[in-house]
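Quick start: read one record
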Amino acid sequence: MEERSLNFIEQIVENDLAEGKNDGRIQTRFPPEPNGYLHIGHVKAICMDFGIAEKYNGVCNLRFDDTNPAKEDTEYVDSIERDIRWLGFKWGQIYYASDYFDQLYDLAIRFIREGKAYVDEQTAEQIAEQKGTPTEAGVASPYRDRPVEENLRLFQAMQNGDIEEGKMVLRAKIDMANPNMHFRDPIMYRIITSHPHHRTGRKWNVYPMYDFAHGQSDYFEGVTHSICTLEFVVHRPLYDYFIDQFAGENFAGLSPYGPDYRPHQYEFNRLNITYTVMSKRKMLQLVKEGLVAGWDDPRMPTVCGLRRRGYTASSIREFMDKIGYTKVEGMIDVGLLEHTIREDLKETAPRVCAIFDPVKLVITNYEGEGETIIAENIDGHEELGTREVRFGRELFIERGDFLEQADNKFYRLSPGGREVRLKASYIIQATGCDKDAEGNITTVYKAATARRKLPSTG
């Protein structure tokens, strides 16, 4: 196998190892939200997260970012585990963001006590409007300077279930004029009382937002390389900001890796494939509206759908190796994915022959009664055995393999001297054809060449 060059994240990892960062420890994680089935876009991240750990003797953990009970279900948890196993990867440990709900809640309380967070009673629309634009500073919430004790009381009321869903949120007090919109007092917690959590039930009425939970979860677990797609580049400063609030000597007990430890986020280009839906939300809509037979419908780009269609795990992983990882978004032709599975099956799948729309073929210069040709399933793979193919004067071919009038781009059979080889037998040329009253071709006449000696008798 041809050795490929290192991608930019592998180069980062090798540089970190050479410099002795994190005491030579490599730890990644694959963090899906269990709100749907994995699709081929997720596989690119899976191959990166697990592949880095495999290549550099590290560990990749599976962590479910289950912070929104309104959309999550154990069905999705089970399917994600099943698909990762099928792809051939093994995780070190399984974690959930919900494992850290108590710790995250305590950190939020610390934020409030230190004057770094406040409870906001504005609507989502008002908050969005007051955030401003990338070129114009936002407007401070009228609740931004609430007293600490009042914020603590209201946040506790939110958790107790005393506040209606959607009526209050907890926001970090950072900088409403920051050019990075994510720093303009981002929401840390929201109320969700309409759905129980798939693991914690009704214990919690407030749930952390992704930006608050994700980096802290990485920190608790000791992740060294937090790898994600490019849309999270603008989230990275906030990722670092939240971690810095709870790292260092004052909070050394939160991580077993010492006060100087920090996880670092790196981003690569996401996967976009022509003619392929890559949105989990749109896939869910297809399933719910009954437009497909389920998440594993062979028309779906989900891992289980691709599996039912006949794709192999090795072909999908090879596809990811072919397209590589960069910092530039692009579009991959679906033809490359199809080529990869053909190349994979060419070396592994026993051959069968079926003709769905037959037309009679007459070998005009074949005079024998017939013969049996021994054909290998796959050339060079004796372990897959052979099959017997009966050859004679009258055969059948697929109707689409013959055109009476064909241009130079048609590489199958047509009159005019072009030669075509029948599998495991003779080189032939078309000399003419018969048609019925409607003009449909009924019989194709061919002559076999002498490249394989024709028998004079059967």
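The first strand starts at residue 27 and ends at 30.
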